[in-house]
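Catalogue entry: protein
Contents: sequence, fold tokens
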Amino acid sequence: MSKINYRPEIDGLRAIAVLPVILFHAGFSYFSGGYVGVDVFFVISGYLITLMIVEETKNNSFSLSRFYERRIRRIVPALFLVILLCIPFMWFLMMPYEARYFSQSLVSVVFFASNFLFWQRSNYFEQESELNPLLHTWSLAVEEQFYIFFPLLIMIFWKFGKKKVFYILLVIAALSLILSEYQSKNFPSANFYLSPSRAWELLAGSLLAMYLMDREPLKNNFMSLLGLILVIFSILNFDDQTRFPSLYTLFPVLGSCLIIMFSHRDIFVGRILSSSLMVQLGLISYSAYLFHQPLFSFARIYSLGHPPVLVMVVLAIITLFLAYISWKFVETPFRNREKVSTKLLLKLFLFFSIFIFSLGIIGHITNGFFNLKTSFIDDNKQKYIFDRDTVYKERSAFWKSSLKNSTIPFDSNKKEKILVLGDSVGKDFYVSAIQNTDLYDRYQFRYIDLDDECMNFNSMSKSLTLNCEKIRSLIFKGNFLEEADQIILSADWSSRTWQNPIFFSEFIPNKKPLKVIGGIKFKEASSIALRSAQNNLTFEEMGNFAYATISNDIMYSKLLKKQVQTRSNIFFYDKYEAFCDNEKKNCNLFEKEEGIPYIWDRIHLTIEGAKFFSTWIAHKVLN
């Protein structure tokens, strides 16, 4: 067993890492870069794990099986406790589609592969991700994947000497950083979640451990304070628009390294981090990290929106209380072999792994326990209940077929040429328009997909990501802007995108009219239907309920409308008019007689919804 000198300031640094993460996920805007706390954890983990492995390897006492046993003792008991506590909340609060995704998360967490699932399913910074109770387990997956390969790497190359191992790790870290910078521009989701672009952060801690090993402790007030400033700067100044991880991530990573390298309980930063409060927060930081996301997620699911600030503050405090209980009565005992033997540990690990895995498989197969969750609904309300995933699959097939010829050049016939641009919401507009026979006879429509970054042509010309290069080439080489008689821009307007139409309008030749379609955003249509049925609401009452769930993001459409009023060639159309009556405070999201939904999630249309929406397009936008 390795004996590493305990450094209380590292526990204090854990407190610096976990508190911003909690405040960021609670929605406090001042901590817009609070997610960098995970990167601080990565550095700490790489540092401590390397100290332990190298020390034991030097003494010929390193055992791979004992290493993995320690990892299980450290990570699994509190993790499984949180998962088990989530299950009843999943049953009572989650809609079937949410329960299905949660079930998939259970399976992936058991295999420490949740980062792969979330890479495929969710953007970490999207509002939808706030409703995922296990989203934060992506970082545990990254660490566990690192723990699988890193000890083997040390065992294989240690015979060549510490110096060569150091340079091997340095080369791997440099390659990982280069990959991270490249992917941040071209494959941001994979870059955020997957281990290859995160490995350098853990290896930064590893390199630091190897450098400091067998050296006297370094003490430097200025350098440790600089490290703390770098970390705090990242927390307060980074946001969801910061390319991450990338070269920007050097701020929190180098800051963490400087703190570990130069702080000591005898100097200013070390004294702060070594204080009893910071150390205690550091000791419970792992459990606090585990508990905070489920608490916030279930609160948001229950409230069908963002809970009041006071509620989130109370939940943050409850997080720390639960974390202390978990640390004292779960984490600490399970780390002690005398209290929990290896045999008992492995039995419990196997039993609960099988249980969680089995529950996840059942939840996936049954579409989130769909039949069980809807079996008690009154028959006349059943028609509005729908399986979100089934509707999505039907829609996807129809959209794929409809978009086949969306980017071919305009024909030379006499039909008026309409160019539609936008994100996935823009696709909805295009598909809706071409379904309307009257419109199809009078106009020819083309559609080009613009993501958030590419919609801003100024930004696109500077960054030129692979995706934007392709889109820019398609638009300009195809002469779409020159040939179009009308240009329509439709997207999910948010804090990141609402000003893009102004930037885009500067590139439209000959001051052609630009028609901008406002956004819509409700709570999940399937949730509205099920909650309405559970409360025995009438069709009209369900419409009132839907109106009450309109997202605060409507403010960005309002800001956009106000801004474009100053431009003579930009015209704004409020999409809510197609679905909602502001005077009656009612929104129609379902066909009344058959109960067919018009929206399958929060913003995207169903096949029936596209037909319904096309009538508004014909009468309002293209009249």
